[in-house]
Amino acid sequence: CMEDVYICSYTPTLSALIRSRLMMKTRGTPSFAAMGQSEPGAGQGEALLTIDSELELVCKLVRMTANTTTLSGDDATRAGALDALQRNSLAHLACHGNQDREQPYNSRFAMRDKPLTLLDIMEQDIPHAEFAFLSACHTAVGDKEKPDEVIHLAAGLQFSGFKSVIGTLWVVDDAVARHVVEAFYENLFKDG
User: Maximum distance among all alpha carbons in the chain?
Assistant: First the structure.
């Protein structure tokens, strides 16, 4: 069976793959930003009740492996999230995600003040980018008519230099997402 021999992988562009391979040679101590918005700004979605406990859980599971920073509540703003992405090599975003199929660069994460758009992220220099977990709805949904020309939130983070990105193809229940996150990080860091 192919799955037993090969690891499925995806890169949005050859330049993203080359950049990620070059950055592997200059690794330092990993730093981790856990960002979440349980009460997004006006018009960005309903309150997400388990975000804060998800961020606490993630930080507890990652703390032994990386220096952790948490951004939530009033601190989880567009500017705060962009700064955290620039300063950290690992990122976890827990919030509402929205795919804009008409204007893909306007796809966004809900923050306290205003949305963090795909274009905002792609315009930044994110020099330490390694891994991002997008605990939000529709972060890896592509176009039904042109599936090979996908521009979505997960691909945008890869365009920005993240070597590995986990996203979703559907609506994710807040409480269920917390369980998936727990299982993922426990397995990722089980050997220290």
Answer: 49
Using DSSP, state whether 66 is helix, strand or coil. coil
Q: Is the pLDDT of residue 2 over 50?
A: no
Q: pLDDT tens, 168-183?
A: 888 888 888 989 999 9
34 forms bridges with which residues in the sheet?
70, 92
**Rounded to whole angstroms, how far apart are CA atoms 83 and 17?**
23
Residue given tokens 């890896």 in the structure block: 140
Q: Which residues of 2-21 are buried (b: 16+ CB within 10 A; e: fewer)?
A: eeeeeeeeeebeeebeebbe
Backbone angles phi, psi at 131, to 5 degrees: -145, 140
Tokens of 147: 């599936």
Do 95 and 37 meet the contact criterion of CB atoms below 8 Å apart?
yes
Sign (positive/negative) of CA torsion 119, 122, 126, 131? positive
Tens of pLDDT, residues 74-123:
999 999 999 999 999 999 999 999 988 888 899 999 999 999 999 999 99
Question: 134 and 90 in contact (C-beta within 8 Å)?
Answer: no
For residue 34, give the nearest of 99, 98, 88 by alpha carbon: 88
Which has the closest alpha carbon to 118: 162, 170, 75? 162
Do 112 and 74 contact (CB within 8 A), yes or no?
yes
What is the distance between the alpha carbons of residues 99 and 9, in angstroms, rounded to a whole number?
22
Name the H helices within 50-161. Answer: 51-62, 78-87, 118-122, 153-159
